[in-house]
Give the backbone structure.
Amino acid sequence: MKAAAVLAALADPTRESIVRLLVEGEKSVGEIAERLPVSRPAVSKHLRLLESARLVTARSEGTRNLYAVRPEALAALRDDLDKLWERALMRYALVANNRKQGRK
Amino acid sequence: MSAVREARVPAVVKSIVVRLRPEQAFELFTAGLSRWWPLKTHSCAGVDALRVDIEPRVGGQVLEQARNGTQAPWGTVLAWDPPRHFAMTWHPAAGPAEATRLEVCRSPPRGLPPAALKWCTPDGKRGDHGPRNSERITTRAG
């Protein structure tokens, strides 16, 4: 799974908030709508998009659907973060060591 | 919130040794952030990002400045204890597994002179790192 695809799906702040809530644990549309300033239909719409982007999965329990974050999506984001900091600290070290050399 | 997240997504911890005095290393990491952070690819304004300013105090703002004068908040300073410890909340346009907290700490590695610096950047709680990680340091700083 590509982190870029995950990030694109999360570009919307409401979708990002929804995913943050789901990281805490599986939730229904109603439970999500209660905690965000968004209507249930809007939550459903965002969830459908997140589902098609393969960020979340749905399962039905009785009359309601429960949504959860796919572990693969979280793993992709973490990989991306790992690479970013690897690169950032390499650049930090380059600037740090150049600065020192420049003074000698 | 972050505790639950950590249970699923372990913090990204990185460390590096640089040839700078502690004060210089701290200053470069914070005031000099724009000199090394990949702003073009990792900022709100992208290629138009100019710099990131960190207000040097607990509660201070971390603000990205763009060429056209717009500002984008990256977070708030949580710890400001130069040259030992810097922490901030971290929420530029980012996903949930992106860090919610950036910790930067210095731990003088055992057996190395105090000038040897170790910076670690976990996005988790304090205390996940420390002297025990210092053993991994192999580079000797002058």
Observations:
- The radius of gyration of chain B is 16 Å.
- The longest strand of chain B covers residues 71-81.
- DSSP finds four helices and seven strands in chain B.
